Amino acid sequence: MDMEVENEDGGAGCVRRLPELVVNRIAAGEVVQRPANALKELIENCLDAKSTLIQIIVKAGGLKYMQIQDNGTGIRRDNLEIVCERFTTSKLQNYEDLSKISTYGFRGEALASISHIAHLTIQTKTALDKCAFKATYEDGLLKGTVIPCAGNQGTQITVEDLFFNVITRKKALKSPSEEYQKIFEVVGSYSVHNANVGFVLKKFGENTDLRTPVKSTHINNIRTIYGNTIAKELMEISIKDETVKLKLHGYITNVNFSTKKGILLLFINHRLVESNGIKKALDVVYSTYLPKNGHSFVYLSLELDPQNVDVNIHPTKHEVHFLYEEQIIDKIKTTVEAKLLSCNNSRVLYVQSRLPGATIPDLVEYEDKPNKNTSKAIDPKMLVRTDATDQKLDKFFGLIEDVNATVIDMQSSVEETESFVEETTDGTIENESSNISNTNVKSPKPYVSYANITNTPSHVSYINPKLSFKTRQLCDRRNETRLTSIKNLRLSVEEKCSSNLREILANLVFIGCIDETKTLIQHSTKMYICNAIKFREELFYEILLYDFQNFGLLKFSSPLSIYDLAMLALDLPECGWSEDDGEKTELAEQVKILLTSKRSMLLEYFSVEIDKAGNLLSLPLLLDNYTPFMGALPMYVLRLATHVNWEIEKECFDTFCRETAVFYSQQQHSDDENVVKARDWTQEHVVFAAIRQYFLPPKEFSENGAILQIANLPDLYKVFERC
């Protein structure tokens, strides 16, 4: 009895087995530390389910309401009863599987932990299910029964009243706005890494804050989330080392970019993690190049042998350990430093133009300088003309003084060009018959179209290269095609688009025309020479695809006989006609019959109007203030009959658009001053205005000489300094 009293007063405490409910809530607090942790686990589940679109709705920073919906494989009906129990997973069976785990989740704790500290509802449907199923969970157990309901394929998880039974944790969290910012960072990080997956994030009842398209790119998503200031300064890096089984790909900012708060997006085997070793190594490298307290933006994706990575060292899985850590960090450090040493691009472009007699402008201030009352001189080699309204070389040659006068000259020149036939005997066409009446243009409005591009000066604002055909907003009155062949041709254009060239052309400054085949443009501190014919041809080809069924009309004042046009073409040397091909009259008649038989299709899809008698009445209006060179019309008509595949739908549209683009890309060869002025005005204010707005340059342009860099301002200054 005395011993029992002694134990109660001063003896060792009694060891007790904690109730399972207490154990689960303690474990839940380790896995889910804040709403962003819960959402991270749910996003990883969506990615494991092979989702291509993930939509997230948040209320009160995720504490009151959080919903995530995907279009993945879904959850089987017979698994819904145990899906929220601890250590239930479809990704792991044996402990040895951890050494080769390739999925995000593996412990089966995420849903269980959330259900212990929030009200959890799951709605899911697999591809084989005829309907969706809905279930509610509490403390890891199914509450009630599984209810059949309507729903799309995939899974929708709703989390309400997070930490409702953990009041201390809830009070310790920051404000809802700060918690939402944490959620935004998590979603942004995963959307950058998983560029092939579309992400949508919005607050409950408000507009969308983050949206990335499906099958996007890393740079485009970085631009969408972090802004163009970072995106335009990115450099790509990559490492492949078989010794340590390392494969790295990423993007880092150059030495001209710095920010007060550094951003490091680190993914190891596609898992968002933190690594103090890698972070410190990057800070050491950048500290040599950046101003004091300046930091960089870095996105790195490391792929390591799963057997060399230990992912099970932290409840939230935000840290991992891996073999050869020192060697891998050294390789990253060496690669980043070598890339930074090779960088010599400028960070900000400044306008520095002085008209004769004007005073010297004040020194330009850096955009991100904390104290706006002070200014800093800019290195002269970084001062470039970026304002299209500033004086140009034309001023010193007296070429163009009044834009309005130029437009008038252009119209008169076009009328002269259109009179491409001199004789009026039988078999020829009278001069006035080829005149085009621009007043008869009929264009279905309102809709966003090439024909509606305004000639806004290119310096007014930055154009996001992502703004392309596929992102244009279409009004109700626009006829949007449902033809699979056209959609596939558009998709082919988008897949072949060079994002680097798109960035250059979207923010170009037009310098001038060398002749009808060559044009000079500027981007940043670099000057490029462009093959104007190739640019016009590809531009008009894309216009024909994306404005399909939505063209205005260029009406001829008098009908043009297709037969006569074909005869004219057969007489031209470039036609290559020989006696073996047959009589010209028979060939011309066949051209007339073929094109007349296609008149309904040509009018509906391309606004090419042909009457029953075989006369050409109109051509499509592709761009305002742009009229094709009528001297090339006979060969165009002939090639429509000989070079267009009229049998197969997709090839028919492709070859027709290509031949039409070739025709529209040609310009009159003339030394006449009025013709030259009109041609140059059209090139700058019509063609390159359209190129800057919407053109998707193919990757082959960077290889076939369509665009070549001929000067770089910093390099020129090096030459001047040596002189």
> Would you identify the regions where 5 or more consecutive residues have pLDDT less than 50?
1-6, 344-374, 398-476
Shape: globular
The number of strands is: 23
Q: Which structural category fits the helices and strands?
A: alpha+beta
Helix run count: 21
Nearest-integer average pLDDT: 78
Approximate strand percentage: 15-25%
Range of helix content? 25-40%
Mind describing the biggest β-sheet?
8 strands, mixed
Q: Numbering strands along the chain, what is their spatial order in the largest sheet?
A: 5-4-3-6-2-1-7-8
- Alpha-carbon Rg, integer: 33 Å
Distance between the termini: 106 Å
Protein model, in words:
- With 723 residues, the chain is α+β, with helices and mostly antiparallel strands.
- The protein contains 21 helices and 23 strands.
- An eight-stranded mixed beta sheet has the order 5-4-3-6-2-1-7-8, covered by helices on one side. Strands 9-10-13-11-12 form a five-stranded mixed beta sheet, with helices on both faces. A four-stranded antiparallel beta sheet has the order 16-20-22-21.
- Helix 14 packs across helix 20.
- The relative contact order is 0.07.
